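quick one: iron/sulfur cluster bound model?
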Amino acid sequence: MGLERYEEFVKRSKSTLVYDPGWSCDNLTGAWRSMRPVMDAGRCNQCGLCWMYCPEGCISHGNIVIDYDYCKGCGICAVECKRGALRMEREPE
Ligand code: SF4
Ligand code: SF4
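yep, here:
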């Protein structure tokens, strides 16, 4: 896709797509999330993979903490965690 077509695509889809990392910082995606990542701290070795892969930048590095106000519940962090320290749970209705 050429740059002009990409820019047009981004402009048209801005209201519906998360097209850039950190875009959800403008939107409290925690309000519509249906699944949430839950951490088992005993399994976590602080490797930082979840922090690195989170498309919204809502996992803090070092002492791993998830900011649920901005987590959209995509589950990437749970898939990437090699230690099984993150699992996805359904949000209550
Ligand atoms: S990927 Fe898993 S083990 Fe690594 S910091 Fe995140 S939760 Fe901990
Ligand atoms: S589910 Fe995990 S990867 Fe997805 S937005 Fe939330 S913290 Fe980030």
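The chain has a mean pLDDT of 84.
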